[in-house]
Amino acid sequence: MVSGSSHNTMAFMMVLVELTNDSTYLIPCIITVICARAVSMQLGEGFYELQVEKTGLPFLMQEDEKKPVLNVLTAEDVMTKNPICLRGSDTLGYVASVLASCPHNGFPIVHTPISTSDTYLIGFITRERLLTLIETKIGEVSAPDSGAAKALTDAQAPPLSDMENGEGDKTSQRVAKLLRALDVLGISVDPRLISRLASSPLDMRDSSDICPNILRETAPVKVVLHFFLRVGVRHITVVDDTQRVTGLITRCDVT
Known about the structure:
A hairpin with a 5-residue loop joins β6 and β7 (245-249). This protein has a four-stranded mixed sheet. It has a three-stranded mixed sheet with strand order 2-3-4. Helices cover 47% and strands 11% of the residues. By secondary structure, the protein is of the alpha/beta class. The chain starts with a helix and ends with a helix. The relative contact order is 0.16.
């Protein structure tokens, strides 16, 4: 019954042999398990497949690559357009605000040359790595021998209520925004260091993937599925002919 409902044959058969420690009934078990799976395959999907469909998990199967519609759709049709991008010069305050305001698990890193307003993809960084960078940066500033910590020992951050009421300048507004973002992310920090951290640059170059998975907008969805199923990637950055980021694809976009 378990073999039929879960479409699982070999694993269940090995469990039976291990539990009984007797190979006498191995052949009858093999025949029973194979027949149970064959009948269940004719009746419909297995228990695990039904649970995946019920919970809405972004699960892809090998059979998805054979769908005829994949030869018609392109990456541009399924991608999330205008994704949130980060720059290598972004401050800790801005990155923390982005993480607190959206649930995305990955962000393209772009570069904007001085001579033009176009942006070019230079890397990709995950949410987990960004959180680690923020905590590391806070730890460096909070260290007892840190120059920033010594300079701010006697300084007190303005009251949050005053900053939210518009009584402070732009710096105070950035401080208030960072305080709220860190609270959402569950990161604790000395309030005396917030002013310095809000404008402190966050170096993401060493922690980012400088060779991210890239596809052109015109790439067929069949290639996208190949990346997810065969290569095992989690994010695919979509670019145009000038290497400008135009979209982002995850498993949720193609399921």
